[in-house]
Amino acid sequence: MSQDDSQIDHEKRKFLTQTATVVGAVGATMAAVPFLSYFKPSEVTLEAGAPIEVDITKLEPGQLIRVEWRGKPIWALKRTEEMLETLPKLEPLLRDPLSEESIQPAAAQNRYRSIKPEIFVAVGVCTHLSCSPTYRPEVAPPDLGKDWLGGFFCPCHGSRFDLAGRVYKKVPAPTNLEVPPYRYLTDTRIIVGEEEQQEESA
Questions:
Q1: Between these two residues, 187 and 22, which has the higher pLDDT value?
Q2: For site-directed labelling of 13, which of 29, 103, 111, 198 has its Cα 20 to 30 A away?
């Protein structure tokens, strides 16, 4: 075999080796796709929404922050002592003051509708037609009247909720604002989407 033939043969072998490597890599990738998709979360899991952490370190008294969970706005409001004092005063005006017909974790079924009185966590969606109410902390503004001691007002159809998300009587919304499952990781971090475990009584 001549030197030219030997060089051509070497070039052919090199070309075939590179081609086989590329084809093998493509084949391996294609074979791996079904296995990789097996580890990807299902659509049901994605729609269900993983829990989220909310940092309330910088939350000032009277301030409300908004985050998103499962495509819905979640509110975290730091209520002042004055705000908490308004809650019992409004109960005669409310449709479900004890939250017996409303959605909230067991640990938040109380007057404050919260695990800790000062921090109110709620789904910021009106229970009438899913508009998002506005936060109106002022007392007795001209457009809401003298009975208004702060709360949430839905501009779509006029539903009103107090500072615990409890619905007033004679408005379109049928129930209190929903309180999502949540728990405290620390004094300044909340996880929304996981309910606090209740201690079993002996």
A1: 187
A2: 29
